[in-house]
Amino acid sequence: MSYLALKNVHVACVILSYAFFFVRGVWMIRESQLLARRWVKIMPHVIDTVLLVSAIALAVMIRQYPFVDPWLTAKVLGLVVYIGLGMIALRRGRTRRARVTAWTAAQAVFLYIVAVALTRSALPGLN
After folding, report:
1. How many domains in the chain?
2. SS3 at position 52
3. Domain extent at residue 99
């Protein structure tokens, strides 16, 4: 697969993953029964698996690696924080306030990850 095709798959998965996270957050806030549907529980794993595989393939293709290249390290660490906040927002948060706070914070982290990807800088806007 060409670099451009792989990058397009990756970006499409980023958009789908975030859009689905956003919608699930809205459903969580509204206490919608849609969150309990089987496909809603399965689709994020499918999308995020393709996202992860495409990310690894892109890193190998451009020969830049986390913990070697600072911007990729920042993306990986940001992703870990985003996943943790997402787990609190959609599953583990004990109160609605905790879940909404985590959901909101996860969106800020997502924007940081996108900024890092676009600028290839661990501190976008500061260099």
Report:
1. 1
2. helix
3. 3-119
The model's pTM: 0.92
SS3 68: coil
**Which token pair is 75?**
């993306």
16, two tokens: 């789908």
Contact criterion met (CB below 8 Å) for 59 and 65: yes
CB atoms within 10 A of CB 104: 12
pLDDT per residue rounded down to tens, the chain (127 residues): 899 999 999 999 999 999 999 999 999 999 999 999 999 999 999 999 999 999 999 999 999 999 999 999 999 999 999 999 999 999 999 999 999 999 999 999 999 999 999 999 999 988 6
* Residue 78 tokens, joined: 């940001």
